[in-house]
Amino acid sequence: MLGTSASPDTVAALRTDLGLDRPLLLRYLSWIGGVFTGDLGNSYTYDTPVSALIANRLAVTAPLTLIATLLSIVISLPLGVWAANRPNGPVDTLASLFSQVGIAVPNFWIGLLLILGVALGLGWLTPGGFPGWDAGFWPALEALILPSIALAVPQSAVLTRVTRAAVIEVTNEDFIRTARAKGMSRTRALWRHAVPNALLPVVTMLGLQIPFLISGAVLVENVFTLPGIGTLAYQALSQRDLIVVQNVVLMFTLIVMVVNVIVDALYAVLDPRLRGRT
């Protein structure tokens, strides 16, 4: 943190300031106690409480991740269901091409293409930066649209493939053939019976993608110069501000754990057969 040319006295003073001169167990208990009380320590670089830094940056990353998640759902579910409804048809071919390209191309490259094409080429949206929510809802939302698309495309590509496979598997079940034999139309049987029963693997994959959205935000926020958690983590890592890094990692871990709990709860909502097991 001080560099290789720091004097021993300066290093000793920093060790005392960071509490590294205390026994390991006491340091750990102090840190755990601070986590439960909201005291995450002070950033060495910014000389600011880490909890305040994370809270300010979370006001950017949280809506960015939420919008990206909603976009991936809106894109992938209809496309995957339509592709499964007519396998090997035009929509299925389009969905397969979209999935392959979306999975292969990294999100930061999609962000660069969006900046060059949409922001600079067409002049429709801002190429980067974040004016803050104090500047108004639309200016702040406008700054998040292109980064959200860059984050959503790879995730929606994966979800499209999972949705297609899950719906095709369900449509081959006996209860779907029974519904069709009773006179139910193909489209009605698809949306009434096949899609609800195919949502479990889709929700599972959606929960698994949250960590990838968070990690992808580190690159995308830097591409669009957004002052979010990803940018904070990158800057803290570059400046060797380990106090900020460890607490950002802790926050990411807690987010993933909470998402997994929500996904488990959704299982019981989507599948009544699991309610007695929860």
Automatic annotation (TrEMBL):
The keyword Transport applies. This is ABC transporter permease. One of its GO terms (molecular function) is dipeptide transmembrane transporter activity. Keywords: Cell membrane, Membrane, Transmembrane, Transmembrane helix, Transport. It is a multi-pass membrane protein. GO terms for cellular component: plasma membrane. It is found in: Cell membrane. It comes from the Bacteria. Pfam families: BPD_transp_1, BPD_transp_1_N. CDD domains: TM_PBP2 (cd06261). Belongs to the binding-protein-dependent transport system permease family. The lineage of its organism: Bacteria, Pseudomonadati, Pseudomonadota, Alphaproteobacteria, Rhodobacterales. Residues 58-267 form the ABC transmembrane type-1 domain. It comes from Antarcticimicrobium sediminis. InterPro entries: BPD_transp_1_N, MetI-like, MetI-like_sf. The chain crosses the membrane at residues 58-83, 103-125, 198-220, 248-270. Its main location: membrane.
